[in-house]
Amino acid sequence: MSTPDPTLIGRVIDIQGGRLIATLFPAEDGFPAAKTLEDESLPVGQLGTLVEVRDRAGHILAEIARSHEEAVVTRAVKGEANAAPRQVTVRERRLELTALGEINGDGRLEPGVSRYPVVGASVHLIPTSRLAVLLARRTQVALELGRLSVRPALKATLEPTALFGRHLAILGQSGAGKSWTLSSLMQRVVKTMPHAHIILLDLHGEYGWKRPDGTTEGIFPPGTARYLDARELEIPYWLLTYSELVDLFVDRADANASLQIAFLRESVYALRKQSNQHAGIDRLSVDSPVYFPIDELYQRFKKANEEKLEFGKVKGPLFGAFDDFLVRFLSLYNDGRYDFFMHPRKNKSSASLEGLLRDFVGLGEPKRQVTVIDLSPVPVDLRPVISAQIGRLAYEFNYWNPRRHEFPLLLVCEEAHQYIPRESDTRFVGTRRSMERIAKEGRKYGVTLCIVSQRPTELSETVLAQCGNYLCLRISNADDQEYVRRLLPEGAKNLADRLASLRRGEVLAVGDAALLPTRIQVDRPDPPPSSSDAPFSQSWMQGPEDLDVNDIIDRWWRQVR
Prior knowledge:
By secondary structure, the protein is an alpha+beta fold. 28% of the residues lie in helices and 25% in strands. The protein has helices at residues 128-135, 160-165, 178-192, 230-233, 242-249, 257-275, 294-306, 323-333, 339-342, 353-361, 383-399, 429-441, 461-465, 478-487, 536-542, 549-558, and strands at residues 8-16, 19-24, 34-37, 40-43, 50-55, 58-77, 86-103, 109-111, 122-125, 143-148, 155-158, 168-171, 198-202, 208-210, 216-218, 225-229, 308-309, 314-315, 370-374, 409-413, 447-453, 469-472, 506-511, 518-522. A hairpin with a 5-residue loop joins β7 (86-103) and β8 (109-111). The radius of gyration is 31 Å and the shape is elongated.
């Protein structure tokens, strides 16, 4: 007589369009909640549990998507002595299983299912030791992000080439742990891969901060990152393309917008060519990243706007057409907050572009794996322009780099919905164009995106649709949940139902980098980002009784945090 398999818990009784219906075997005292295998207690029938389905033709790995119990038959049972027969209801516990992958003849897991088991196939629990073998991947390097939520004893790893080579989106509501997840992932990257090249747009100063002594520290290990104030990096006006200059200076709703756009093109091209005629550049276009004097651009518009002919008796053809342009120009030119952009001190010649690019991609002195660009001091209305420049510089750098595949760049866009919006707002045309270009073409040139956002419905649909990997944290908003569901691969759409139940710092990893759609409890970053919420109860019980309001006003005036 053969000994029953201790892992056996049920059998398949129905198959419906890729979902398996199984019935659990009851024990003498009812349906067991757990079973002990190899000195570990494994839950039986719990939502999210992984099980193995076997028949003679092969084995598959499946996940429990639903568990329910129902009465299947009522029968009379003879009572003792002269007691009347009593009615007993026989109940059956059923599981709905989602097939995740096939287990091949070598005992390794392959994503996707080409052949489903037949009715009568047995359902088995999987000991942790066997699950570890199934999930092991043959890869040169693996990024350990945390632990499997369903098996905390097992490490959760992602394959970096697939993760960053196909664009990545980290989505989750405020407070779900996006900064935590990004920090933990980036810390693991720089420790595992010493020649990584990452540019991180930090909108709130969460990833680098000032110590009391004035020095800067952040989430990355010493010697791996350079923290730059976007104003110190000094991306100047002359790096803008013609279309970006239009977005900055021209109000498209103005009746004279078409005249302003045409005159701007002619003027910028002439000034770029005139200012670089001794540089030995054979060919220049209106978009070439070469220096031109911004004050001369203003003078050209002013002269055309005030021109009169025939000794002042007749107005010129463009007289008064540039009034709004000049007002808009001067409002930026004279605003001290824009000095780093409109009045550059370091980058005042075409030759300064090399130093700027070296600092930008981490090849400056000292060389660093990560460049953290703090955008928090930049005026809100200028952030889209600067973000567009950063995205375009990353793309153009590797587009013209013959060793692009040896020097891939990752551009991390924090709070991306603020400057890569879904709606067609004229303020964000340039940024959207830059980021969507990277999303659609960047992989060919070794430039990829990591998009981080709490509002996926407000993000550019083009950018999100190009992402091949998603780390989804808790999302409670029904519209955002439905939007994320549409983004996920077909086999993982049902997992979107669980987004609202994820814990803080727990992600649902879906995409090319994860062998299977997986719930992961992310490791705590060390150090954590400066993004923690204010401890209201503690602060309101033990907080300061007074503040230096003069210092606050002074910081406000000088725009220094």
